[in-house]
Amino acid sequence: MLHLSLSVATRALLRRLAWGALIALVGVALLLALWLRSLLASAPDARDLRDVQAARPSLLLSADGVPLSSFRRAQQERVPLARISPYVTQALIATEDRRFYEHHGVDARRTVAALFRTATGETQGGSTITQQLARNLFPDEIGRSRTISRKLKEMITALRIERAFSKPQILETYLNTAPFLYNVVGIEMAARTYYDKPAAELNALESATLIGMLKGTAYYNPIVHPERAQQRRNVVLAQMVKQHWLAEAQRAALSTQPLKLRFSRPTEALGSAPHFSALARKWLIDWADEHDYNVYSDGLVVQTTLDSRLQEAATQAVARQAQALQQVADVEWSKPAAPSARSLDAYAALHAKADPFGYFWSSHRDLVADFIRETPEYKRARDAGAADAAALHPLAADSAWMARLKREKTRLEAGFVAIEPASGEVKAWVGSRDFDIDQYDHVAQAERQPGSTFKPFVYGAALEAGLTPERAYVDEAVEVALGGGKVWRPTDVAAPSGRTMTLRDGLVYSKNSITAQVMQDVGVGRIVALAQAMGVDQSKLDPVPSLALGTSPVTLLEMVSGYATIAQLGEHRKPLFIKRISDRHGNVLAEFGAQMRPALSSDSAIELVDMMRGVVTQGTGTQVKTRFGLVADIAGKTGTTQNNTDGWFILMHPSLVAGAWVGFNDSRVTMRSDYWGQGGHNAILVVG
Questions:
Q1: Which of 3, 159, 601, 612 lies at 20 to 30 Å from 207 by C-alpha?
Q2: What number is the average pLDDT over the span 502-517?
Q3: pLDDT tens across 307-362, in order?
Q4: What angle in degrees, to the nearest 10, is found between the helix axes of 602-617 and 556-567?
């Protein structure tokens, strides 16, 4: 009886255990199914693959349809497989995936072998070319961690890639998306970066070197680790022999050869208007983020306001005239008795034998020490505990380093911008002489004292206050109490004449004594308000009496925008950079037009334009007509700041307003002579 009851109990226990095991097995199966389902759902699908294949960078165009720049995360140029050397594909398949044409995305034999070797302590990659492509295309979705889920997701994606694309398409996409360091992506840019040739012209040796990098780009970097790169290249050549793509005799001969690189690190191409393009890119990235577009892959077409022909002419003018003025400065500062001439050609003839800025450096030794103390090298030495002299003297004794510092400090710079007053559209924008040397934008970033170019806002405020162009003033010494016992005494180049001059004369001949009196009659507050309304609305205008003579730093863009308001008879239009954004199919996504506001009455604007005509016909801006022979209806204003630090000229025409600034990035370096230091003789050359 006891035996029977134990038997029943045992059977019941076994049944419970069996049910428990079955439930656990079903649970594990369900969990596994859910896990696999989540992997399938999270792995990129056919739509993702098509989106990546169709990805296209956004493009910036000029108003007349000329490409300015494109938006790329890396230096990349896609090329079809037909434009890639066969040595490249042979090296790739021989080294990375010799059964590429036999599998459907995953090589089972290679995967099992890799698992076995991993289990025995060895490391061997089991990924096919298609799996590697999956990682390259979807790094965020697949990840880089060494986990089973990551590997399965990679396999699923590889299988989907094989279903969506042909083998040649996979090879082409892989070679166009493989990374090669230095922000270079794709075999075409790699060939140009490392060998200065297109991918179609790569030979077996070069192809093996580049494909060899793919095992570990940093480890096999041929620039940093040439020995490793050469060893890896020879491994690739040996694999090509095994696949019968290279004869053993060829391999033996090639293996002894050096790398023979022609390396040139690529730079981002910003086209013919680099400073403008950089500004437009920043604006567009913000716009795209706000409207849920990707500027790197959605293929947006952005039409800017720039005129490519005017831009080209402006770029050449800045480069040519700034170089000529550089020669003037180099020669005039070369020795104590400075040569003096009114011809640029005279300085060009003297330049070859001159010691550029030689006298400047010998006569400004304290300034040289200040320049050194402002460098990162000096500051690092001080941070490391060095005393002033210990940090200063080694740098001063380094002739090559000092030559670079002096060259940088004495490089004359210039900026130019042109705006169409009727629309506010920016038509040309040159931020510096050479973007590769100086990325600092002297149009929209640099704030410099505008000097007498600020005076039209003073006289505009006077006209608005009811003063007439014939209002009489006496050219005499002016004193303005500033408070605290201080007095401001503006002066002119010539001593006060004591004669009567009109308001109009004060602007035409740029008389500081007259302008100061006009400022007193109008009030600084009105001048500030008018300048801001007319477009000088980003820089802070200091409401002090000297503001009337242009002592508050502003940007060239603000000044030209303000003059465009005058040309448009007092109606301000905010500078416009972008006209239209379309998708890759030509559908217009957004259009932009002028943002207008009244700033100056039309009657005052007409009077002001007429007064500024006098500047170019009889005043400080006559060279724009005499030197360049302009006969159009133009007006404008010159500007020069203290010690010839800044030179300005802004020209107005009913259809275009253009302005230029000339000077040095460091305001402690200036033009030497009063003649060439004036805006009417330096900046006017750029505009003319």
A1: 159
A2: 96
A3: 999 999 999 999 999 999 999 999 999 999 888 889 999 999 999 999 999 999 99
A4: 110
In the chain, domain spans: 78-255, 412-687
Q: Is 527 exposed, middle or buried (0-12, 13-18, 19+ CB in 10 A)?
A: buried
**Would you give the DSSP letter of residue 644?**
G
φ, ψ (nearest 5 deg) of residue 593? -130, -175
CATH numeric code, 412-687:
3.40.710.10
CATH topology of domain 78-255: Penicillin binding protein transpeptidase fold (1.10.3810)
* Residue 610, both tokens: 């007429």
Count, residues in the chain: 688
CA distance 545 to 480: 8
The H-or-E segment that residue 368 falls in is helix 365-373
Report d(CA 610, CA 642) in Å as an integer.
28
Pairing, β 656-664 against β 412-420 = antiparallel
**Cβ pair 531, 541 in contact under 8 A:** yes
**pLDDT tens per residue across span 233-290:** 999 999 999 999 999 999 999 999 999 999 988 776 678 899 999 999 899 989 988 9
Token pair, residue 569, equals 């008879």
Instruction: Tell me if residue 149 falls in helix, strand or coil.
Output: helix
Q: Which helix (H) or strand (E) holds 685?
A: helix 683-687
